[in-house]
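pinging the channel bc i need a second pair of eyes. not urgent but kinda urgent?? the chain im working w is below, pasted from the shared doc
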Amino acid sequence: MKREQIIGLFILLLLTAGTIFAASHSPAEEENGLSEGERAYMEMLEAAPLAVVEGETVSPDQRFLVRAVGATDIYVSGVRVPERVQVVDRSTEKVLWETEGMVGQEALWSPESGFLALARSARTRCSVTVIETENWTSWEFTLPDGSPIPEYTFPAYYEPWGQWRSEHSLDLTFDDGNEGQSRYTCVITTEQGQVTGEVRERTEEILPGSYDFNHDGQPEILELATFWYPGMTGKQMESCAFRVLDGENRILWEDFAGVSHAGENGLYALRLDGEDYLLQYVPKMGQGYCGYQYRIFSLDIKGTPVVYQESRVEFDINFGSPIHESFDIPAIAAFLKEVHGWLDNAQELVNTIWGEIDLGEVDYSSTAALEIALENYRKKLSP
């Protein structure tokens, strides 16, 4: 529903109430049990169309229909508020789920028809409900801290208010009364027949620079979406999504980076032989076992990575333990020299790496310096 309609509701209700109150004092207007103002309102009400469900009323698999039914005695900016909003089986007309109608309702189906996001708006408030289509349970969207959507905050009007990134990932955008916007990402899951969602605030930015990673002669758009959670000292970064978009804002390629140990990632832009490439470096470590890898790649026209060069080294730092397997200093030094040589000539795009072993101040361009630093590191940790 448009914000103008919502404001119109408030004004109309005030005007209507004033008209009815003033008319009630005229005996001539009491004829047939209705005042002139009441008769005019009823005529306007009967002539008004019922507010419909906007957006995607039919599910992608064509099984379900979202509809507005019944009519209340509430008239708002040219429409009549419905009594109910229902989801029905299109083949049998059986009502599978329903709720109270509002001034505006918009439907958005997940790609596989497993979930319906339903946004409803009233005069000062709105709600977003996610319904799953197996057991027909629902989840009400809240802010990341569990609080409800603030008053005078409504689904975005000048851009899509919602977008399913996948079957279980829903992006939402709201306009607030101060002409600002808030963005959220919901991870939707079902457990023991109940649907629930986990919400993170999302900020988005377009990264600077001009890059053509699919080598089609047209630069792509680089978008970074950062996800925040409410921490003890304010909101804190949890992860980010790096997206390569084509000229029509469609995702060509996407990857994620988290601040947790398991989610670390590094992405860079690299120029080779006059062409743009992506460099990904991920130095993983877990329980003393290390797997460092990098790859340099471009994208084909469909966004599939085309590897230009890649390498990997594995070792562990469980020195003195029966489970210690390998710490091949020449191999590790060769890998680190190679990958840092690429990194020195690359432009950082995303970097949450923190798992690389700390060799102190060392010249990564020197094999000899790296081997000495690695040997000192081994001696330092050995019992």
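so Confidence is low (pLDDT under 50) at residues 1-30. and Helices lie at 3-23, 36-47, 329-344, 367-381. — does that match what u expected or am i reading it wrong
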